[in-house]
Amino acid sequence: MARAAPDAAYAEAMVARAHQLGLAQDPHWLRLGHWRRRPLTGLRSEAAGRDFFLDPQGRTNPSAELDATLRAFFGATPQPADEVARGLMPAFCRFPARLVVLQKELRFDPARLDPKPCPRWDEFWERVQPESVSLIFSAYYLNNPASMFGHTFLRIRKRGPAVDREKRELLDGAIDYSADADTRNPVLYAFKGLFGFFPGTFRLRPFFYKVREYNDYESRDLFEYDLALTDAEVVILIAHVFELGSTYFDYYYVDENCSYHILAALEAAAPRLRLLENVGTPVVPIDTVKALYGNPGLVREVRYRPSASTQFNARVAGMPRDQRTLVESLAHDPETPLPSGLAEQDRIRVLDAGADLVDVRYAKELPFQPDGEGSRIKQRVLERRAALQRPSEPLRVDPPAHWPHDAHGSGRVSAGALWSDAEGGAATLGYRLALHGLDDPLGGYPDLAQIEFFAGELRVGRGATVQLERLDFIDAISLHAMTSFDHRLSWKVRAGASRVRDAGCAGCLAAELTLGMGAALDAGPLLLFATGDVSVQASGALRGFEFARGVRAGAGPAAGLRLRLGDRLTASAGGHAYWLPDAAGPWTWLTEVRLRFVVSGDVAIGVSARKLPEAVEAGLETFLFY
Amino acid sequence: MRRLLLAAVFAVLLSSTQAFAAAKYGAAGCGLGSIVFDSQPGIVQIFAATTNGTFGTQTFGITTGTSNCETAPGAAGAKVFIEGNREALAKDISRGQGETLKNLASLAGCADAGAVGSVLQKNFKAIFPAATTPSENVADSIVSTLKRETALACSKLG
Questions:
Q1: Are A544 and A581 in contact (CB under 8 A)?
Q2: A305, A473, A489, A612 — which has fewest CB within 10 A?
């Protein structure tokens, strides 16, 4: 207590200095506290855990929080009894980034602080040993709605001897922001995820868990963006992540998601960076990667870590047909004899590719079912491989031709003109919230997938009549090219509403859900796919079932093709024919052809024509990606 | 409004696409199953949890103390590494080379990753006698093999 009086005086002097400097309105302080002004809430911190604030009004009052922080640092206010009782660290240990930043701004005498032992911080620091930071983009994973848009996290490279980085990379740390889901009901899950009912927290774990999870378990390529941060910025980032460990945020999948908070943490560490202002809503991970490039010099190197299936493809590329057959049969029957004439190098290659194929094919089973079929096959293939007693050549995988940061913008608007034999001429306006269509420019997105969210088209006809032609909540297509190794089915789902132009009605807007399963062939520039679809449509004006007028169900084949003629020109065609039991007109169908030309990076033009049972249409459109 | 729209989208998606394998939730420890699925937002976790029923049992707090699944140099860290990388490491050992072997050699303080690879490759059957061999046993065999082969000079295994 003897020290309290002079320290209290010093604390007040620093509080006064902070006020004088207007520090509470300084962007760096606001970023450290995650205070942001929003239309509904006013100025408020996005951090929701109360332990992140020292002042009871701290969440909405950056100035009061600043004063309380300074007073706590200098020991002018003791730690509240309830915090002590809950085992909470004293403020001095809990807010290392605030400490560093305030010292830098106020230039106070560190000897006047009220230091405390901080074993947890020491341990955390010892674990991380940060040297530099990369932002990692994990590619799209269509089989999980939460991962459809990709994911970003940070890798913290550990200090270490200047050896080949490959020798220690897996031992680095990974910092990840994610939701702590507490339900397994899909509808509740979607609801809670969208409306911020899950708490989101930052976590640190060894980088190898991320590699195993994304590269191996989910077969997603990883793209690393090494960031040119100063040593001080790296330290503040790590210290700030430690601060965030004491709190949580409300997780919103659409905007305040993993990618948003990763950028917010980077901005808090390095106030010179302008990241979130370069990202719109929704916050799509790929846009946050592109936002890095809004800061010249920030990305100093890009690197690529191929997924398990990319590695497998590299192993079998150029392999003779007879050896490929052996690889495939090893993955079924690990005792498959290798011909005696096969050279040892080729035996090694075949067994190595066989093991990779088992890993890809049984990725979901291997970590969990050591007594399963996949584990049994893999064990035997590896035994045979090890028995050869020779090291394999290191696998070389070419870096990708297109990187995520080269991708077109995730949002899209379009405008055009249309002629229809039923309704004459019209102007068209189109919008797509996200993300990528099969005809869109190549590169940065999965080439065999379409992920369209909230896409629609308006038609403005004669007399300025405005009509909604189409509005899809989702239109997703996931194509798996059939190869001798990959027999997975392709699938698609579309949910939304569109105009019906057949015997069911002439131009009524009908809600629609269509699901399809099928197969795809990828022959270089040419992509072919076919699915068997089921579809349900509903509209008040629709002549459907006898027992439920306004509703009809259809089933039938659909097919499409796409031809990439170089990087700029894409031609495509497609159609479907559905049988409609018990409805007016037993069939409905559609055929269409499209041609798309990329004028420059984010601008494309397209022409299209389509025929439906009661309409023929042709259109010209300009697309802008942003 | 925007969120309301997307809520509908996700509900449709979640209920209509894909059958996901209901993987067995891993036993506690530092294996992939116990670590990865505790933070995964998404349906994988939802299904993974159906056989377990709880979430967050292995949560890594940043400030709430340490997790045991860390890879500080030494035998304990090496074992964590081996358990977490088991599938990839088994493959690399069978090949006598690969990234997991190089990192293991760094962690164990061995002079030459190539030599580590060839010693472990030679001992593959002893280290991985069966696919069902528990990861702890695999980790023990690897660590004791590295210690036994003094020529490897693995200095950080104690």
A1: no
A2: A489
| Contact across the interface for A184 and B50, Cβ inside 8 Å | yes
Whether A95 has its CB under 8 Å from any CB of chain B: the answer is no
Q: What is the DSSP letter of A46?
A: S
Distance (Å, whole) CA A235 – CA A129: 10
Is the pLDDT reported for residue A224 higher than 70? yes
Binary contact (B20, A376; C-beta < 8 A): no
Direct distance between the N- and C-terminal alpha carbons of chain A, in angstroms, rounded to an integer: 61
**Candidates B62, B87, B97; nearest CB to A202:** B62
- Round to whole Å and give the CA distance between A474 and A436: 11
CA of A475: how far to CAs of A114, A368, A453, A478, in Å?
Answer: 59, 33, 7, 10
**Cβ contacts (< 8 Å) between B112 and chain A: which residues?**
none
Pairing of the two strands A173-179 and A198-206: antiparallel
Token pair in block for residue A439? 């005809």
Judge if pTM exceeds 0.90. no
Instruction: Tell me the pLDDT band of B29, cut-offs 50, 70 and 90.
Output: low
Tell me the pLDDT tens digit for each residue of A400-417: 888 999 999 989 999 999
**Chain A residues within an 8 Å CB radius of B92:** none
CB under 8 Å to A151, separation ≥6 — which residues? Answer: A137, A138, A214, A258, A259, A285
Closest CA to A436 of A472, A406, A475: A475
SS3 at position A519: strand
Is residue A586 within 8 Å of residue A579, measured between CB atoms? Answer: yes
Q: What share of chain A is helix, strand, coil (3-state, %, to 5)?
A: 30, 35, 35
Which of B11, B18, B41 minimises the CB distance to A179? B41
Question: In a mutagenesis test of the B interface, which of A118, A143, A170 is the best target, namely the one with the most B β-carbons within 10 Å?
Answer: A170
CB contact under 8 A, B16 and A513: yes
CA B100 to chain A, closest CA, distance in angstroms equals 8
Q: How far is CA A493 from CA A475, A516, A538, B44, in A?
A: 6, 7, 17, 19
